[in-house]
Prior knowledge:
0% strand; mainly alpha
Amino acid sequence: MSATQTTIITYLGTPIFGICLSLLVFLFGQWLFKIGKGFFLFQPLFVGMVLGIFILWLMAKMFGVDVTWFYTNAYKPGGDIIFWFLNPATIAFAVPLYKRNDIVKRFWLEILLSLIIGLFISLFIIYGVSKLIGLDNNGIASMLPQAATTAIAMPISGAIGGTPAITAMACILNAVLIYALATWLIKLFHLTEPIGQGLGLGTAGHTVGSAKAIQLSSVSGAMAAIAVVIISIVVDIVVPTFANFMGIVK
């Protein structure tokens, strides 16, 4: 190990660096989103991801070390702590599900069938497009779980031979696009029913889509939260089976 690498581990290889960097880029994204009056490319999660990657790359070049090495030894100790909070945050989506269990009880079959059918359609589309653009099995496996929220999609991606970091980026990009196009898509497909709006935004846009659904109505927001929970369970069961069936997992 070189003297530079030893210095980096000594001064930056503690959880403080990764935690502070994550918080700072996210807070900057929130500020940018506010002054940009909600411009979709300034969505805090997206800004934090892009800016964080750029800062890590820039710092690695400044220190003259490999980017992957710098990420693993300088950022990851704190980044893993931030990532841990994704799990309880995802579980918290069960709260609105509980509060609006009256809707779930009335339409449970329609909700479940629509999410399962929609997932299967999306899996075949993702698989077909991935093959069309020449992705290998690793790339396809990284794309398949993106219907689930990031905390669920990343472990599934790793389990079927994908790259969790690529899956996380796909999930975030999906969320940003859905947030940006939500109003237009609702008008295009004439989605006037709050239940349908919420299920669509929660499934495609995850937490960011749920935030958009809450802006539309309380029912849409509750349905989006329900979609995030249910689709994550369905993805956890269906995607590994689909990957095995298509020969992606060796």
